Amino acid sequence: MTGSPLRVVVAKPGLDGHDRGAKVVARALRDAGMEVVYTGLHQTPEQIVEAAIQEDADLVGLSVLSGAHMTLFAKVMELLKERDAEDIVVFGGGIIPEADIPELEKIGVAKVFTPGATTTEIVAWVRGAVRPDEDA
């Protein structure tokens, strides 16, 4: 990989208290050479966007298991737009029904990983989403 490492903010928006998956993804991205900031549990969309901007993140990964993904993802996308930070790529994962994925993509979420996605798949996608010309 050339240049500086990718910077990824991994966040758990809302009241969902289950963060094992987010921690597994954060560790896989870190082990793949990326700089990862894990925001912890119970973050508001405002806190997540602020962290992404302060950390000069290339990507934000959202993990939602609570069923509030439509509201939380939409708010993050709206705040990134308001802060002129739409260049930050947003991806997500968790318990998200397949029927909701096209709507999330419509609002600008670049990728949604559902249960069963491997860390290898996620790492490869993250690399390709920001720097498609580099070797995975």
From TrEMBL:
Q: Which cofactor does it need?
A: adenosylcob(III)alamin
Among the GO molecular function terms of this UniProt record, one is:
cobalamin binding
The keyword Ubl conjugation is annotated on this UniProt entry: no
Classification via SUPFAM superfamilies: Cobalamin (vitamin B12)-binding domain
Q: Kind of enzyme, top EC level?
A: isomerase
Which UniProt keywords are present, listed alphabetically? Cobalamin, Cobalt, Isomerase, Metal-binding
**A UniProt-annotated Pfam family:** B12-binding
Q: Does the keyword Membrane apply?
A: no
Q: Which domain of life is it from?
A: Bacteria
Name the EC number(s): 5.4.99.2
Q: Where is the B12-binding domain?
A: 5-133
| Cited NCBIfam families | acid_CoA_mut_C
Q: What is this protein called?
A: Methylmalonyl-CoA mutase C-terminal domain/subunit
What species is this protein from?
Pedococcus badiiscoriae
